[in-house]
Structure formats: C-alpha cells, structure tokens
C-alpha cells in the first residue's frame, strides 16, 4: 500500500452511469452529488463528463465514478463504451414531463442490452420540487419500478432532496452484490475490486485504522 495518495485510498471503484432523456436533470444530479452544486442554466451537456466522490459504505471506502451521457441521448447514440464496466445506473425522468417517463422503458432495454444482468438500477423521478407541475405520479413510478425490479426514488437536484440517498443506496446495493460474489467466488477476476478479496480488504482496513487485530 506504500505510495498511495490520499485521494486514491479506497477499497472499491464503482462505475455508475446516468441515463434518461435530455433535460431531465442528469448533469445537475451529478454536480449536486459530487460537488454540491446546481446550475439553473439548462444547456445540454457536451463532451464526455464524469465525476467522482468517495464515501464509506459498511466500513469500506467506495469511490463512485459517476458518468453523464454528455448529450449523446439527443441523437439516440449512446455508445456501448459508455455502458462498459458499469455496475450501477440511475435511470432518470422528469416528473413534470410525461414523455420522459414514457422513454424509461426504452432506456432500460438499452441498458440491459449492454450491461451485466446484476447491474443495480435506480429509477429516479427528478424535479420533485415542482409539485404544482407534476405530470407523473409517484404511484406510476413505484408501479414501473416494482414491475421491472428496480429501486425507486423521487429527487430534486435543485433543493438536494434524496440526491445523496439515491446514490448512496445504489452504491450500498452494489457493495452487497460484490461482497457476495467475492465470498462465493473467492478472488474471481470479474469482481470489480482492486484485486483483493473481502478478507484481504478487511485486513487492509484494519491496518489503515492503525488497530491491531484485537477482536
């Protein structure tokens, strides 16, 4: 572990993608979660964009690498490279625009065509602060997510409602799946970790905290 820089001091790196129609607030969800910022300018994202944030889940440091679609969705041309290696996804619609909810099924199919079957997917009804303009009911979101076995939350990137909770829940569920896979498969190369299995990670965590094994 010598030579680690502080910002690289993590147990797992998880790639999470944001998908959904243009204008639903994906970029602001990203900036709210990773930088606690929000922009009222609704210009579409151009170019590849991702940001990272590290947080502790069940005693492990998880570095989340969150990818934004970079405006590709306007041309329905999300590349397979965007999805490659993703272990989590936030599928976002705008609660004030029913057409964006109607697109969710297509986005989910595309996601499942390009990713591992075990990917953790959270359906997000964004812009929940605009209650007076709601066009998609909470019940509709809940019903779709239950039918498709997705997690579901309504969020507001504007006032930060449920943004941290949504990302944290996705990362927690990914961690549980990865931990179970690691336990089942030993140190199988398919496990997206730093190459150590869960037992080694625990040992490393114990050493980082400076504690001797006094359990």
TrEMBL record:
Cited InterPro entries: P-loop_NTPase, Rab_GTPases_membrane_traffic, Small_GTP-bd, Small_GTPase
Gene Ontology cellular component annotations, sorted alphabetically: plasma membrane
Sorted UniProt keywords: GTP-binding, Lipoprotein, Membrane, Nucleotide-binding, Prenylation
Localisation: Cell membrane
SMART domains for the chain: RAB, RAN, RAS, RHO
Membrane topology recorded in Swiss-Prot or TrEMBL: Lipid-anchor
GO MF annotation terms: GTP binding
Superkingdom, natural source: Eukaryota
Keyword Zinc: no
Family annotation (CDD domains): Rab11_like
Pfam families named in the record: Ras (PF00071)
Protein family membership: Belongs to the small GTPase superfamily. Rab family.
Identification of the protein by name: Ras-related protein ric2
Source organism: Castilleja foliolosa
Lineage: Eukaryota, Viridiplantae, Streptophyta, Embryophyta, Tracheophyta
């Amino acid at each position: 572990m010598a030579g680690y820089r502080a910002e690289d001091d993590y147990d797992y790196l998880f790639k999470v993608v944001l998908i959904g129609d243009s204008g639903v607030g994906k970029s602001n969800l990203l900036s709210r979660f990773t930088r606690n910022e929000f922009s009222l300018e609704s210009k579409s994202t151009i170019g590849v964009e991702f940001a990272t944030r590290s947080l502790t889940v069940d005693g492990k440091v998880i570095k989340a690498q969150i990818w934004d679609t970079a405006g590709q969705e306007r041309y329905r041309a999300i590349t397979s490279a965007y999805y490659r290696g993703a272990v989590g996804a936030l599928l976002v619609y705008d609660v004030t625009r029913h057409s964006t909810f109607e697109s969710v099924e297509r986005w989910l199919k595309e996601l499942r065509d390009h990713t591992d079957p075990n990917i953790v997917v959270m359906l997000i009804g964004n812009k929940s602060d605009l209650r007076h303009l709601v066009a998609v009911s909470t019940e509709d979101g809940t019903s779709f997510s239950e039918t498709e076995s997705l997690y579901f939350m309504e969020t507001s990137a504007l006032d930060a409602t449920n943004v941290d909770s949504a990302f944290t829940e996705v990362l927690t569920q990914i961690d549980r799946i990865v931990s179970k896979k690691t336990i089942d498969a030993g140190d199988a190369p398919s496990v997206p970790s730093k190459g150590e299995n869960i037992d080694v990670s625990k040992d490393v965590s114990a050493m980082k905290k400076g504690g001797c094994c006094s359990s």
